[in-house]
Amino acid sequence: AAQPAPAPAASPPPAKPADPHDIVVTGRLGPPPGDPVEKINTVSFQAMQGVDKAFVGQIAMTYDRGVPKPIRQGLHNALINLSEPINFVNYLLQLKPGKAVKTLGRFAINSTVGVGGLVDVAKRKPINLPYRRNGFANTMGYYGIAPGPHLYLPLIGSSSLRDFPGRLMDLALLPTAVGVPFKGAAWGIGRGTLASIDDRLAIDSVLNEVRDNSPDPYAALKAWYQAKRKAEIEALHSRKGGERKPAE
């Protein structure tokens, strides 16, 4: 007997129009822009937070509680006074002779009348020369060099592919240009230790805020650092006129 013809295959139902209110979930492939080594940075951040809580932070807090404020302030002033030659050179490189002269004036006044920079005489009336931080990383940013990938480095913290070599250049200026007494292990270790404690105290409130209130402390600290650095570079372009667009 003849076999019945197979029934035609049922046509697939028409595709349902996409609902504009549907939520499409996509995964992030790879690290976020500006942080291609995020995994390494995160591991470094977590390790350094453990070191900070157990060691560095404890030393900084002991220093803060145990050393009288006038002495701490004097040492802080001396540290920033030692950075004035760096600021001066970079204002020259940025073609800002007025600020360079003011920086040089601050350094001369505080190094003499201010007893080696222990007292910031220059910022007081009637002189009114406030401290303005500068550096080689700022000069690179001023001339349009972008920060590049974010870095979180042991013993240094947040940085970038632009800021890290700029920091090394800052640290090398006095030993290279002047030599003794700014050259040698004793100077480097002593200044580096004091500067690390001073810097740690300066960001204590930021670290506490990030640790206590952020679901992702690494991302929050990175965002804070990048915003701060962007603002510092943009401040160099604050004069009205045909300034070069700053690097973000």
Secondary structure elements and their pairing?
Layout: H1 38-66, H2 69-82, H3 84-93, H4 97-112, H5 136-142, E1 150-153, E2 157-160, H6 163-177, H7 185-202, H8 204-213, H9 217-235
Antiparallel strand pairs: 1-2
Helix pairs in contact: 1-7, 3-4, 5-6, 8-9
- Count of helical stretches: 9
Approximate helicity band: 55-70%
- What proportion of the residues form beta strands (DSSP E)? under 5%
End-to-end gap? 83 Å
* Elements, N to C (H/E): HHHHHEEHHHH
| Mean pLDDT score | 85
Main sheet specs: 2 strands, antiparallel
Q: What's the arrangement of strands in the largest beta sheet? A: 1-2
Global morphology: globular
Number of strands: 2
The gyration radius over C-alpha positions equals 27 Å
Index terms:
single chain; 248 residues; mainly alpha; two-stranded antiparallel sheet; 3% strand; globular; disordered C terminus
Write a short abstract of this structure.
The chain is mainly alpha-helical.
Descriptive account of the structure:
There is one protein chain. By secondary structure, the protein is mainly alpha-helical. The protein is 56% helix and 3% strand. It is built from nine helices and two strands. The chain has helices at residues 38-66, 69-82, 84-93, 97-112, 136-142, 163-177, 185-202, 204-213, 217-235, and strands spanning 150-153, 157-160. Helix 1 (38-66) crosses helix 7 and helix 5 packs across helix 6 (163-177).
